[in-house]
UniProtKB/TrEMBL annotation:
Transmembrane segments: none annotated. The keyword Signal applies. SMART domains: IG. This is LFA3 protein. The keyword Cell wall biogenesis/degradation does not apply. Gene3D superfamilies: Immunoglobulins. The gene is Cd58. Keywords: Glycoprotein, Membrane, Signal. GO terms for molecular function: signaling receptor binding. Residues 6-99 form the Immunoglobulin domain. Its main location: membrane. It is found in: Membrane. One of its GO terms (cellular component) is cell surface.
Length: 181
């Protein structure tokens, strides 16, 4: 009996990525394949063997985790972990998509009935984490759009929007005086 799972995972060009593997039993043999071609294998406690294209950019742990360093667009593909625990074969399947980093965030502002509305956007195909920080306020706000009464701001204040995905973070800043006509 083989147990098969499939998970979609994402990484960013240039980052380090580790497949999310949790195996709680002793592993006798491990083989990782990308699009049906071997990329890494380990027999028992022996040193792992690595194959092209991950030969100099990967690490295979005893627990089955495969880490790829300096992700490239062509690392995108279907990966399969096959391991044997001395009782049965197990298969874990992943579809890795390697994305370009998100663009620098763009901040826009508008005023609606004495409310200042700030919006932060970035060109990226996956959901991002957004955080706002204001120069005159110690609090941070987790939201893509933020709105507050105009009277809560002064014209020397600056707002910074941070976007984050995986290990990548970028930010942009705006002086709030730019929002007032």
């Amino acid at each position: 009996v083989a147990h098969i799972y499939c998970t979609d995972v994402f990484g960013i060009v240039g980052e380090t990525f580790t497949f999310p593997v949790e195996i709680n039993q002793k592993i006798e043999e491990i083989t990782w394949k990308k699009n049906k071609d071997k990329v890494a294998e380990r027999d028992g406690q022996n040193t792992p063997t690595y194959f092209t294209p991950l030969q100099d950019r990967s690490r295979l742990e005893e627990n089955g985790c495969l880490t790829i360093f300096n992700l490239e667009k062509n690392d995108t593909g279907a990966y399969e972990l096959h391991y044997w625990d001395s009782l049965e074969d197990h298969y874990l399947n992943f579809v890795l998509t390697v994305l370009d980093p998100p663009s620098e965030p763009k901040i826009s502002c508008s005023i609606r009935a004495d409310i200042l509305v700030l919006n932060c956007t970035s060109d990226f195909p996956r959901p991002l984490n957004y955080t706002w920080k204001f120069s005159n306020n110690p609090h941070t706000y987790q939201s893509q759009e933020i709105s507050n009464p105009i009277k809560n701001f002064d014209d020397t204040e600056k707002a910074t929007c941070f976007i984050a995905f995986s290990q990548t973070e970028k930010s942009s800043e705006i002086s709030l005086i730019e929002c007032f006509p």
